[in-house]
Amino acid sequence: MKMNKTCFNCLLGRVEYECRLSTDDDRLIEETADKCENLLLEHINDDNPSPQISSMIHRLVCECISDSDPYREIKSEDNNTALNVLEDVKGRLSGFRDICLGTIIANTLDHGSVEHKVSDDFSSFFMEEFRKGLSIDDTNEASGLCSKIVYLCDNCGEIVFDRYLIEYLKNNGSYITVVVRGSPIINDATMEDALSIGLDKISDRLLTNTKDIAELGVNLDILPQDVKAAIDDATLIISKGMANYESLSEHKKTEKLPPVLYLMMVKCQPIAEDIGVDKGSRIAMLVK
User: Fold this and answer.
1) Phi–psi pair at 245, nearest 5 degrees
2) Contact in structure between 189 and 154 (CB atoms under 8 Å)
3) Does domain 79-287 have CATH number 3.40.109.10?
4) Which residue spans of the chain are classified as CATH 1.10.8.380?
5) pLDDT > 80? residue 116
6) How many Å separate Cα 125 from the centre of its chain?
7) How confident is the model at residue 2 (pLDDT cuts 50, 70, 90)?
């Protein structure tokens, strides 16, 4: 997916939110927002997937406020919240479809977007969304493609439910390469975050999407060779969240990729329109 006007406004709104996690210096926040707007105007028409442009903006924010990980406290809190909720609900998650749905609901732990608000009561929210079920459900077909999986993680909090799905898949014979972010960017999971919940102990390999660069989604230009090799060898990519969708949906137009199972809550209107569903839909969508 390419960036549009809605993405532009949403991203600028997220800039101020991100700044205020680290500083209350209004002058610095205003200066940072102005620099980000200028950079965004310079690149808004670039022929790149939206996450590549968003990543430049988030890197600039962190440089301006001298804080490489402004979401660090939120990430820890979300992991703790998710651990508590998973303990309460995992008895209801009876198979691949249900566990996928659980990870999709946990994808809503995504802070700072003007298009989406995180629930103050994630436990109640989880049960309400779980009762609604999947808006797109390709889990039955995808379950037959799980021999070798590349699992692209997204947010903290969400990765707690990812771990539960990965455990289920491993117990059913899958070989799984898990990929997290190469450096902190918004509230996405890094190697440090993954190690803190033991993802290294259950995955066959735990890799990063860059070598120490803060980058959302999948940027093929800087994707490490070991991740490229894992994708080439995979029978299925499980793609969590919107940034990974925005990247892979573009790459699949020009690159030979394995089937992709997109697992996410559709949290913004541009992605809803791109897929052809309502905003708020819970999708497990297989694209071959």
Assistant:
1) -60, -45
2) yes
3) no
4) 5-65
5) no
6) 19
7) confident
